[in-house]
Amino acid sequence: MTTRRLVRRLGGLAFGGDYNPEQWDKAVWEEDDELMRRAGVNLATVGVFSWALLEPTEGHFDFGWLDAHLDRLHANGIAVDLATPTASPPPWFTLAHPDALPVSSDGTKLVHGSRDTYCLAAPAYRGAARRVALALAERYGDHPAVAMWHVHNEYMTLCWCDHVAASFRVWLHARHGSLDALNEAWGTAFWSQHYTSWDQVLPPRATQWHHNPAQTLDFSRFWSDEALAAYVDQRDAIRAHSDRPVTTNLMVPGYQNLDLWAFGREVDVVTIDHYPIAPGVDAAADTAFGGDRARSFGGGRPWLLMEQGTNTVYAGDRVLAKEPGEILRHSLGHVAHGSDGALFFQWRQSRAGAEMWHSAMVPHAGADSRIFREVTALGSALGRLGELAGSTVRAEVAVLHDSDSWWAMNSDGLPSAELDYLGALRRAHRALWDAGVTTDFARPDDELSRYRLVLAPALFLLSDASAENLRRYVAGGGTLLVQHFSGVVDARLHARLGGYPAAPLRAALGIRVDEYRPLGRGEQVVLSDGSHGTAWSESVRLDGAEAVATYTGGMLAGGAALTRHRFGDGHGWYLSTRLDDANYAVLVDRLLAGTGVGPDLPDLPFGVEAVTRHAQDGRRWLIVLNHTADVVPLPAPGHDLLTDATAHELPPGGCVVLRLP
Ligand code: GAL
Predict the structure, then answer these.
(1) Does the bond joining 346 to the residue before it have cis omega, within 30 degrees of 0?
(2) SS3 assignment, position 645
(3) Angle between the 162-176 and 179-186 helix axes, to the nearest 10 degrees?
(4) Ligand 1 centroid vs 36 CA: distance in angstroms?
(5) Which runs of consecutive H residues, i.e. helices, occur in 298-369?
């Protein structure tokens, strides 16, 4: 799992994007060759949605057009990230195999006309996907242009059809062993759901009221495994004919149909697609959130930004443009957090089709445009950063991130709609980012002792083993902050009895929660230290811990809201409400100060980011990004690789990459 081979082949960081020449003609290809050279592109992702051209009729492949493009790119000095086209089956496929079409949870069968119209569990689809991957690998496995394989595109679709039901039963049988065990795990004694034969068991299709939460959790686990198996099918077909690294582009941060930790173990290089969901400084924080997750999914190794938009910021019901300079700054943001390059969707903005308004490296206006000039500037900037390739990012703080907890928190019937897994994760990361601290994500069952501070903002589901792992972490000297409604269910999504959270964690925290009290919308609780909480409160009984702040009103008045417990060599903190952002930041700063964790570059103003990349041989680079509109002096001058000169300050929106002595 490393970019080593790729960057050696490219001679530095990767730069380029999805290239779909099949949408254009020869005159445009010739211009593409020239513009790619001018921009410094060295990697093009080819063929992502080209199934209909590659296999015009079932089992008959036409490689002529692809041969020509790969040869042309190669002659132009551009390496290829060759994709399997399986995210968009052609119309002939869906007509020939209607049983392989996806069915939504309400029973609606979807048809072709968009993309992603397949069911991952349908044998006809899986067979066809493997066949086209194999055909590509046999033909291009040793092609000199091919530097990497790109399987599929963003495994993110779901299906509830009969093939899925059959596969789900097989998966459940393997997990639970017997129908009795399944009944027990799913708590089917409630609402007369007891199953007496396997064929009664279904995926969680549209039903009358709440789904059984254990059933939906198992379905999420199953689906992620199914998607991973579909990836592994293609990967192994490719590996039989090619020694180039294989990946699939993961989608972060919002889509949560996959256990990205599991994918991180199976890809040769973690690659992600990232489109910021807010403008300005928030986009930079979101970039860091995506990058830190990508790095963590790959176990800390360098990863690759496979897609971003040159001029795309998704903001609810509209797509905002990027400000001048953001193409470079967002890209360097990804590099700062460990990406060995920056690629885009897509090279040339489509003139027709569903994504014709999506930004690209060459916009509709052509090369004489701000966008293309900024793209070219980025290409030359990345060209000067080749020495960073393969270096890594180090963190002393981790935020716990667990797919089971996320999926479980999506279940029906939770006591408050304000229990938001992703929101809690983002808030924790953002508080650390605002404090200038580089953050890893970790799983609750990971070895955590290398972290001085661990935040657990949303650990709804906690297995016995993970609870014990967290207890051990604190006992061994770690500082752990656990937040409300954590550790309240076990791995089967059964409530913890006798008080929350799970017993080993109660010991580490020195508390016992005997009642949760969700707050009304807009309702606020005031704590004794003057801070405010919303959404949630709890009755916390002290069992060794001290109350750092108490509730000041209502039924919980005088009760502990924030606690600290000296346990073994470490400290367990518990926060039983959702603090306002500013109060939460104060708490996080206090924990950072208490554990001696600081920013890579202290005393930077708000909105200026600094991250260090470390090479194995001891070389280091400090990437400093000014997301503000002010001139920011550097604490110490340094040699900036971007300008090959000594930098003393950052202009508004500016970036430097300093080679550290
Ligand atoms: C990505 C996808 C691309 C394109 C892009 C638009 O998620 O992989 O094919 O659709 O979004 O933002």
Answers:
(1) yes
(2) strand
(3) 90
(4) 21
(5) 326-336
Indicate if ligand 1 lies below 6 Å from the C-beta of 307: yes
Distance, CA of 386 to chain centre:
25
One-letter amino acid identity for 424?
A
Closest CA to 369 of 324, 308, 399: 324
DSSP 15-26: EEEEE-GGGS-H
Alpha helices in 118-274 (DSSP H): 123-140, 162-176, 179-186, 213-239, 260-266
Greatest Cα pair distance in the chain: 76
Residue 221 contacts residue 117 (beta carbons within 8 Å): no
pLDDT at position 1 is 57
In sequence order, which residues have a C-beta less than 8 Å from that of residue 566 and are 6 or more positions away? Answer: none
Residue 78: name the closest of 24, 30, 25, 40 by CA: 40
DSSP letters for 573-624? EEE-SEE-HHHHHHHHHHHHHHHT---SSTTPPTTEEEEEEE-TTS-EEEEE
Atom of ligand 1 nearest to the CA of 249: 8
Q: Residues of 261-277 as b/e, b for ≥16 C-beta within 10 angstroms?
A: bbbbeebbbbbbbbbbb
Q: Give the type of residue at 567.
A: F
Residue 358, ligand 1, Cβ within 6 A: yes
pLDDT higher than 60, residue 172? yes
Residues 581, 432 share a domain: yes
Whether residue 655 sits in one domain with residue 572: no
Q: Is 523 in the pocket of ligand 1 (CB under 6 A)?
A: no
Does 645 share its domain with 541? Answer: no
Q: Are residues 618 and 543 in the same domain?
A: no
Q: What percent of the chain has pLDDT over 70?
A: 100
For atom 4 of ligand 1, which residue has the closest CA? 345
The CATH number that applies at residue 428 is 3.40.50.880
pLDDT at 256: 84
Ordered strands of the 578-579 beta sheet: 524-526, 532-534, 578-579
25-49 residue pLDDT tens: 999 999 999 999 999 999 999 999 9
SS3 226: helix
C-beta of 421 in contact with ligand 1 (< 6 A): no
Tally of domains in the chain: 3
486 shares its domain with 628: no
Q: State the distance from the centre of ligand 1 to the C-alpha of 246, rounded, in angstroms.
A: 19
Count CA atoms closer than 13 A to 125's CA, side-chain side. Answer: 29
How far apart CA 202 and CA 335 sit, in angstroms, is 44
CA–CA distances in Å: residue 444 to residues 24, 268, 504: 49, 24, 13
Q: Which atom of ligand 1 is found nearest the CA of 48?
A: 9
513-530 burial, b at 16+ Cβ within 10 Å, e below that, comes to: beebbbbeeeeebebbee
Which helix H or strand E contains 64, and what residues bound it?
Answer: helix 64-75
Nearest of 410, 383, 12, 350 to residue 211 by alpha carbon: 410
For residue 49, the ligand 1 atom closest to its alpha carbon is: 9
Residue-number span of the structural domain to which 173 is assigned: 42-258
pLDDT higher than 90, residue 212: yes
Helix (H) or strand (E) holding 488: none
Instruction: Return the number of other C-beta atoms located less than 10 Å from residue 179's C-beta.
Output: 18
d(CA 358, CA 348) in angstroms, rounded, equals 10
- Full strand arrangement of the beta sheet holding 632-640: 392-393, 608-614, 620-626, 655-659, 632-640, 645-650
